[in-house]
Design brief:
Largest sheet: 6 strands, antiparallel
Oligomer: single chain
Radius of gyration: 17 Å
Helix content: under 10%
Mean pLDDT: 94
Strand content: 35-45%
CATH architecture of one domain: Roll
Number of strands: 10
C-alpha cells in the first residue's frame, strides 16, 4: 500500500521549494511524484503548429522524490508521517502517526 497517493496534499520538507504545499497530480514511478506547483523548471518550447502549441519559455513541473515530501495534516497544520493500520473488518487504512486519525482518501 502506497503511503502517498494521487490527490493527497503534501508539504515539501527539503530543497529549494521547502515549506510549499501542493496536491499530488500523479505517481511517476515507485519513488517519484508529480506535485502541482512544486519543482517548476523553465523549458524552452519550440512551436508545434500540428498540435497548436505556441513557442516560448514555459513552466513545467518535474518529478520530486517522495522522501522530500510529507503528507499534510490539516488538524496540526504541519507535515506528518503516515502509518498503515488494519481495521476490525480486515480493511487497511492510512493513519497519521501523531494523532492516529485516519487519512481521508
Amino acid at each position: 500500500m502506497e503511503k502517498i497517493r494521487k490527490g493527497d496534499e503534501v508539504i515539501v520538507i527539503t530543497g529549494r521549494d521547502k515549506g510549499k504545499r501542493g496536491t499530488v497530480l500523479r505517481r511517476v514511478d515507485a519513488t517519484h511524484l508529480l506535485v502541482e506547483g512544486i519543482n517548476l523548471v523553465k523549458k524552452h518550447q519550440r512551436p508545434n503548429p500540428m498540435k497548436g502549441e505556441a513557442g516560448g519559455i514555459v513552466d513545467k513541473a518535474m518529478p520530486i522524490d517522495q522522501s522530500n515530501v510529507m503528507l499534510f495534516n490539516g488538524a496540526t497544520g504541519k507535515g506528518d508521517r503516515v502509518g498503515i493500520k488494519t481495521l476490525e473488518d480486515g480493511k487497511k487504512v492510512r493513519v497519521f502517526r501523531s494523532n492516529g486519525e485516519i487519512v481521508k482518501a
